[in-house]
Amino acid sequence: MSAPAASQGVVGVPAPAVDPSSNKKAAAARKQAEVPIFQKRNWILYYNYVRKKFDKCRELIKVMKEETRGISEYGLYVEGLLFRTEGKILQSLEAFRKASRLDPKDVDTKKQIAASLFLLGRHRQAIDAYEQAEQLDSMDWEIRHNKGMCYVFLQESHLAREQFLKAIQFNQALVTFKKLGELYEEQEEEEQAVAIYERGLQLYPDNSELLTKLGLVLLASGNTQAAFEKLGSAVMFGNASIQALMGVGCIMQQHGDIDPALDKYALVANSAPESPYMWNNLGMCYYSKSQWATSTACLKRAVYLSPLEWKINYNLGLVHLTMQQDATAYHFLKVAIHLNSTSAMVYAALAVVLTRLNEIDNAQKCYDKLFTISKRIPLTYLNYATFLARQDRIDEATEQLKLFYKCCQHVGKEACMLNKDLLAACKATATFLGMEQTAPVFPDSKEVKVRKKKDKEAK
Question: Chain-centre distance of CA 420, in angstroms?
């Protein structure tokens, strides 16, 4: 009897074993085959781009274009970024638009198109591009922030403010707090600026730039103590900005701490020796120390660096006026008036110079212009009273001196900047006008503050 034929192999002989690694290789090969050809080099391109190997990136992009016949979305995207780093904004815009046509729903590409339009100054078109991106991702804070920046350049402040506030709702980014605070400052809304900076400091308490901005706003609004604390904190946290040092020095200078202020300005001079404002403040520090020659040298350096800054020209005129160099003082004060015709201080100083130069009619015009601009400078009443007394206009001089006494009673002699020489001049004018018996005792500024506080509490 014959044995049956084996249909599935030889009986008793085991089947050959399958190598597990061969299965993995096959799976990897299948997976690799599934990756589209226009994406397989993306990771290499990304690897070289983040390491700033731009030449290698350009070579890869060229190869990717040849392989994909120009439809490599990521290659076009990176090419746009490379064009932008080279300053070729139009070419970058075209590259991003090509990438966007390949994937119209990609938000990042839309944002890059808008960024290129922004850099080209096409702010309206940039806003339209950001709105298209916003339709794809309504929660992206960068879209809101950048739209706000476009509105800032279009000088549409209310729309910019809305976008910045929406950006903060999505992500409380430091840069948005800075821009929104600056926008409030430009609109002279100091309270809103202070509020937004303080809100930012709750999240970034050690940020010296926010502390500096808040300190400068408080200083401009007259809150000197709070400004000094914020600016001091900005200096303390290190990497102190020039603005912080200048602000601290300015506050010290206003309070008569001249030597500490000079130390702060010296630190500024190491970092920014070409700052006209630093030289201006240095000059006025030396003016307070009666070092006229040093003060003049610093101020002339400042006016050389910034000849169109009216305050520097005014200060230089003031120094020459103190040195009784009236013709030179007239020159700088005249320049200051041409640069800023609404400053009462300049007209007050120019009136004194013209009086010394015996230009009576022009001095009278200066006083007339001065009082149409502002009536809040007490010392001008004393100067005008002296001027009128010398012209034998006794009744008018008497009225001006009474106004000066009233101002001094209201704010105190320190606020009126009364020193020994001015008190002596006031006494001489009062004696000439026959008012020495009615001259009041000038209170200190502290006494005035205490009196006002008591009156307020009584009410």
Answer: 40
